[in-house]
């Protein structure tokens, strides 16, 4: 299990959201996202939350 800080992001598909995702990735956050247009920054792309 990763010891990086974790964050779940929903709806990061607009200009501000994408820059926020990039900021988190650049600062070593373990990012989980339900919606984004930049999957290269996402370590795990969730398709469904249970």
UniProtKB/TrEMBL annotation:
InterPro entries cross-referenced by the UniProt entry? NAD(P)-bd_dom_sf (IPR036291)
What this protein is called in its record is: NAD dependent epimerase/dehydratase family protein
> What is the organism of origin for this protein?
Cylindrospermum stagnale PCC 7417
Lineage per the UniProt record: Bacteria, Bacillati, Cyanobacteriota, Cyanophyceae, Nostocales
């Amino acid at each position: 299990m990763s010891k990086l800080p974790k964050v779940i992001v929903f709806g990061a598909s607009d200009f501000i959201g994408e820059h926020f995702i990039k900021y988190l990735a650049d600062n070593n956050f373990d990012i989980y996202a339900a919606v984004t247009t930049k999957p290269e920054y996402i370590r795990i792309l969730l398709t469904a939350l249970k």
